[in-house]
Amino acid sequence: xxxxxxxxxxxxxxxxxxxxxxxxxALSLSLPLGVLAVQRPRLGAAVxxxxxxxxxxxxxxxxxxxxxxxxxxxxxxxxLALTLYAALPILRNTVAGIAGVEPALREAAxxxxxxxxxxxxxxxxxxxxPVIVAGVRTAAVWTVGTATLSTLxxxxxxxxxxxxGLQTRNEAAVIVGCVGAALxxxxxxxxxxxxxxxxxxxxxxxxxxxxxxxxxALAWAGGAVAWERLAPAPAPIRIGAKPFTEQYVLGELLAxxxxxxxxxxxxxxxxxxxxxxxxxxxxxxxxxxxxxSGTLWATILAREGVPPARAAVLAEVTRVLEREHGxxxxxxxxxxxxxxxxxxxxxxxxxxxxxxGDLAAHAASLEIGxxxxxxxxxxxxxxxxxxxxxxxxxxxMDPTLMYAxxxxxxxxxxxxxxxxxxxxxxxxxxxxxxxxVIPPYDAVVLTSAALATRAPDAVAALGRLDGxxxxxxxxxxxxxxxxxGLTPREVARAFLAEGxxxxxx
Amino acid sequence: MGTLGRVILLQGLVKxxxxxxxxxxxxxxxxxxxxxxxxxxxxxxxxxxxKVVNRLVEPDAGSVQVGGHDVRESAPHELRRRIGYAFxxxxxxxxxxxxxxxxxxxALLGWERARIDARVDALLERMELPPADFRARRPHQLSGGQxxxxxxxxxxxxxxxxxxxxxxxxxxxxxxxxxxxxAFQRLRRELDLTVLFVxxxxxxxxxxxxxxxxxDAGRVVQLGTPRExxxxxxxxxxxALLETPRRxxxxxxxxxxxxx
Lengths: 505, 260
Description:
With 505 residues, chain A is an alpha/beta fold. Helices cover 64% and strands 10% of the residues of chain A.
């Protein structure tokens, strides 16, 4: 709770900046477009149609699409996605509001001698204002809500608390994040509503109060930007992390290592997707992160079929990343985190399965669960091809829920992560991949080409993590977060402190 | 009448809406200070004829002159600022006060604030709407008759010499309507206004008009003074329109005769 509260001001500021920037850009695009759409009905139909189509794209997907489109992570893709998302309600209400002005008033406006521009400014827009403002309020609430997802494309927001909280079972962080976002949305909605009522009813006091509120929000968001500009901190080393516990711990561990060994500031960017992370590293948007040799083998190198031995995969991945992407594999941490099929130990005993091959006889009556990526991954296809089984059903679920689901019998087995502390916590049995279909997943530290020139000492420091963490140590750290409720940062720092005192890592 | 004495000159106006022919060769002149009524059933083309004068309707063929100049010589908004226009739905701007509504055309013309205020007060007085009470009201705080009078004041605000009125006293109760008609008649004489007036009510036309143009199916079927129309209706349609006021007036005369 305390750590969540400590992060709250920074994340709430980032959240507000992102929301206001998205809303402002959406307003400045949608208002003129809406006016134009009324004057040119055919163009209007096309614009409204396009906006509606954008609206049907799930917000998460819209955010994710922006990353490859812009070849960037962080504020820019999140800003654009939020803008597109907020555009429709403003656009639609602008069109509806202006089109809803009584024909008699339009005729009167022309009759008294207004030019088309005066008609718009003096009659149509003022009369459409309540409808337009309703659209802006809808957009404001959507934008603040959707901004929580921006954390997935590397833009900080209150979503950081929510996502990390969900993954590490830190309910307090989830609640702080949700309540914070809800309060921001409510506050913005009310302030805009107050401003509109004040203007419409000609109430000075209301208008002034609302303008003060909105002005304060703008000053807060803008002031934070100015502060960063005026007091430029040295650009920190940026460490990425995927959205699960082990990655949070390793991200903190890398960041703490850099800070401790080089004195350079380091920050973590959590909750980025696998390919988003790799692209960001290649583009120099982040400086380092931990990936797994098997994942790189299957997704970046796009190799299929039964992989070679662990050392060969690692060597090949190292060679290709360096040659084709300028990315360096500076350390193999010393453990593997592979996908492993796991089921309840009592269930495994009852069915008499020890190895994946034993499943073939039972598969037709079993249901298997996996994370968002699993059933689309090459490894799953390779497993099915090699062992020739067909399960009764497959279910995609959040990794957080997967372990509880198998423990409670909601699904029969899951594609678990082999270093996950919850395997032991839930008393699951891991099946042996006797044909070696699932590639080896050495955890490796990747650094960007830029980092080698900008901060060679940081690269060297990260390189010294080679062999520093064995599977047992990783499992213990994961469990400390997932079961004991420690934060990833606490766990990472404790590990480094032990290492320093003990064997001098 | 000479060019100088002629405020409106319409020649050979044709207007189509899709397949429907709204105006089928309308020609008409209105002299300075004259009040000409356009009378006829719904859809006869009287409103279209009125609206070509301030270019709210653009004819497909024919020409329109106002004050000796073709209306296409100036921008529509400039033309309309010189011509007062009031219509049955009134169309008062609901987000503006009565004073702002009345003063809108002077404001568009860039008059000074004090001049606008004085003008608005004078017009409200004339319309029997005490400025102290009515200036700050919003349109929704007016009765139907009050709104019509504000509409008329708005049409007169910039001191136009030509007034276009489309059923300005429609949808009013008879007593209010009569009072407004009397007020209008006085105003017109005092200000020497030229008026083109659309009405479907022949009785109103007979009472207020200098000349009446009876329209049917996009044409002017008879043009003459009220006296000429009553004396010699051009055809059965005109006679039918005159029938109602004639019968009502005869009945009233009869009653008056009986009581005398």
